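Following the same procedure, backbone shapes were mapped to integers, as reproduced here:
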Amino acid sequence: MIEFGSIINGKQVKTGEWIDIYNPYTKKQVGRVASIDTKTLDKVLTDTKNTKINLTRYERYDILNKIASALEERVDEVSKMITDETGLCLKDTRYEASRVSDVLRFSAMKALDDDSQVFPCDVSKNGKPRRIYTTRVPLGLISCITPFNHPMNQVVHKIAPAIATNNTVVLKPSEKTPLSAYYFAQLALDCGLPPNMLNVINGADVQATAEMMTIHPEITMVSFTGGSKVGKIIASKAGYKKLVLELGGSSALLVLEDADIDEAVEVTMSGTFKNSAQRCTAIRRILVHESIADDYAAKLTTRVEALKYGDPYDAENDMGTVITEESAKEMQLRVQDAIDNGAVLLAGHKRDGALYAPTVLDHVHNAHEVVAKETFGPVAPIIRFKTLDEAIDIANDTPYGLSGGVVSNHWPSIQRVITELDTGTVNVNEAPSYRLEWTPFGGVKDSGLGYKEGVIETMKGYTYVKTYSLPWDIA
């Protein structure tokens, strides 16, 4: 069993109540982390704010690469730990460990970039013989709150750019899956990260802890990834702080009339069932032209029925559990409601505790709860359409606007989808979830404020631009 104290000022502090962590598949305790009360958290936030970090660009680069190398040597250990706390299969957790390394190395690379600009001032009749320069300055204290899915990668997406820009962070990971966050923070300290640059806490009173992580006056920025409901609460309470809110999604994949059906099925498989479909960008609605829907549904069903799911520790399995038995029950009810209201079950819809079989539904309508809400699990709902106009209308008929995709080789139609889909991302002949760790990423509508994640955009968001000018007599 893994045990971590709160990570405060470079040390593990084992005070307060313990928060116990259980594996969703075995239901056995796999670890625990210490909690702190809000009085202690108040002091941690103030002390972290008052800590000034002055690492050189090379020192930041070096620390980030050391952490990446250390993690690459520990892939099996890290993968098992993530499986322990999430119930995700080893195939998925090994992939996550690899992604974490990418985030760190991209952040290290960008830490070396010269991000300044120079503007001549003798360019108009009102100018002077001067030059204006810009430099980026760290914001200060960043409050980071992360969800249960991708418990290490979500954390590192917030922390690595903070290290790269000399910011300090207090992190509150999900109480369901905190082990990865504490493991990462301790490893970062072992690799030379200065004390108080990253502190990791959880509170026994989850609501009071999250509220303090939002409203505390020493916090300069709140970076939150999670559900849209909580994101809106944070936005209403944060006050005069910079916000990055990456929230829910209901990604649509449009399979147009000219699509290669085999290619469409492959895109669907890669975009729907990885990570037990617990990804904000996972395909939640599959919009298929009625002329090819029968063939597509049959081929997709064959592929889904061949998926191996079950024991997440079995290296041959393609899928483990969802995060809790309650979550599995909720999606089971939503699928059954769709069936009761006209949808046709083609595969799956079986539950054993937190294990829910990969499921395919056909003849789904956008009003069915299984697609109207963010069903955070392995369900592939097929919605049939007649025209591209109808498909775009259906795709946009959701509160969410995170990502989408289209399978087609008809360029005018592809252009329309890219232009008219109300999402932050559109991928062509690829799953809506596809991106690299340093490319811009973010949503619109209830999927977030539109600020982008990805290493480059996050580093911009964690800094402000300061300008200064100097005399310059030479043209």
In short: The CA atoms of residues 337 and 369 lie 8 Å apart. The longest helix spans residues 90-111.
